[in-house]
Amino acid sequence: MNVAIPVHSRTGNTRSVADRMQQTLESAGHAVRIIDVRTTGGSGQEPGETVFDGVTTLSGYDGIIFGSPVHAFSLAPDMEAFMKVLPPLEGKTVACFVTQAFPFPWMGGTRAVRQMAKLCRARGATVSGTGVVNWGRTCREKLIRRAVEKITSVFR
Ligand SMILES: Cc1cc2nc3c(=O)[nH]c(=O)nc-3n(C[C@H](O)[C@H](O)[C@H](O)COP(=O)(O)O)c2cc1C
What is the pLDDT of residues 93-133, one digit of tens each? Predict the structure, then answer.
């Protein structure tokens, strides 16, 4: 399968989880491209102008994994801006994940990942998997492995 991972990451946490998903999927024979969703311009605060790695369409991909940090108990505004202008996603295998500093998913992670799923459904997608990684937990590595396994298993 041809899989895209559009990911927003300010300090690298979410990107590192995307990297691990890429490795896992590539080992299983999939072709994977990570698309960095970034903000430029303005005062440097989100949302500025959202740019994403020169990719203007997701039409060439059969699978898409959206990744974002949690900001202010919600989906990061930059990722929200990106996901609000997504092309139609009908027929694609879609999954979403977030990373957050606070220790429990109910502290913003669950809400953020639900926001992502809702935006995907608005574009015609069925969301097959979601994941939350609580970065501040001592068991972070276990949470990362669990999220990577849960999301990538959707593509088997
Ligand atoms: C502006 C801002 C707001 C944040 N708000 C939350 C929050 O509400 N809940 C939470 O758990 N973490 C919050 N965080 C922490 C990030 O979600 C967390 O560190 C995440 O793993 C960062 O991912 P990144 O390195 O990919 O940017 C916030 C971080 C920033 C910069």
Answer: 999 999 999 999 999 999 999 999 999 999 999 999 999 99
Does residue 105's CB lie within 6 angstroms of at least one atom of ligand 1? no
Ligand 1 mean position to 101 CA, how many Å? 6
CA of residue 16 to ligand 1 center, whole Å: 14
Asked whether 93 lines ligand 1 (CB < 6 A), one says: no
| Token couple for 114 | 């639900």
Whether the model clears a pTM of 0.85, i.e. scores above it, the answer is yes
CA distance 53 to 140: 29
Domains of the chain (ranges plus CATH)? 2-155 (3.40.50.360)
Per-residue pLDDT reduced to its tens digit, 47-75: 556 666 555 578 889 999 999 999 999 99
* DSSP 8-state symbol, 62: S
What's the gap in Å between 60 CA and the centre of ligand 1? Answer: 31
Q: Where are the alpha helices (DSSP H) in 28-139?
A: 77-83, 109-122
